[in-house]
Amino acid sequence: MLQKNGNIAGPRVLEHMVDTVLYLEGERYFSYRILRGVKNRFGSTNEIGMFEMRDSGMVEVNNPSSVLISERDTNVSGSVVVASQEGTRPIMIELQALTTPSVYGLPRRMANGIDYNRLTLLIAVLEKRAGLMLGNQDVYLNVVGGIKINEPALDLGIILAVSSNYKNIQIGKDVVAIGEVRINRGNKIS
Predict the structure, then answer these.
(1) Backbone angles phi, psi at 167, to 5 degrees
(2) Of 61, 138, 145, 180, which is most buried, counting CB atoms within 10 Å of its CB?
(3) CB 64, CB 159: distance < 8 Å
(4) Integer Cα distance of 76 and 72 in angstroms
C-alpha cells in the first residue's frame, strides 16, 4: 500500500486504510480507561471519553474530573490539581510529585503520564530560575488515573507539585494550577 506521497505505508498500513483509529488507554490495575481518537477522516481527533470497566462491560463516566480528583489527599506536599483541555472537554486531574535525595551520583527522573523531557526541562527551570537545588534529588511525577496528557498548561502544576514536595509545603485543596511556563530574558519564571 502506498501513502499519498508515494512512499510505502509500512507497519501502519491498516491505519492508512481506515477512516477512524481509536486507542483505548489506561493502566493495568486501574478500572478506568480513556478512549482517544487519533485519526478521524471526517471529524475531530481531539476528543476523549472516559469509561469504567465493570462486570457488565465498559460504562461511560459522565464527570471524569470527579473521579480523577476524588481521592486526593490534601494533607501531603507534592499534590496539586491541574486543568487540562482534552478536545472540547476541560478535565481536572491530580498531579503527584515526589523528591528524595539521590543515593547514586546521577539523580533519577521519572514521569508517568507526561512527557519525560518536559519534566526534565521544568526541573532545569526550577534550578536555574527559582534556585531550587534539585541536582542531588530523584524526582518522580505521576498523573493520577493513568492518563497520558500532552498539555503545555500543565507546566505550572508540575512546577508547583515538585517544589511543594521539595520544600514540604502543602498546596490548598481549593487551588487549581493552569499555565505554561516560559523563561524570560531576565531571571524570572512567567
Answers:
(1) -90, -5
(2) 145
(3) no
(4) 9
pTM: 0.78
pLDDT per residue over 44-89, tens digit each?
777 788 888 888 988 988 887 777 777 777 778 999 999 988 777 7
d(CA 124, CA 117): 11
* 131 close to 123: Cβ distance less than 8 angstroms: no
Distance CA 67, CA 50 (A): 10
| The domain defined by 66-177 carries CATH number 3.30.2020.10 | no
Residue written as grid cell 464527570: 63
**Mean pLDDT across the stretch 105-114?**
91
Where is pLDDT greater, at 34 or 70? Answer: 34
Task: Write down the domain spans for the chain.
Answer: 16-64, 66-177
Identity at 181, one-letter amino acid code: V
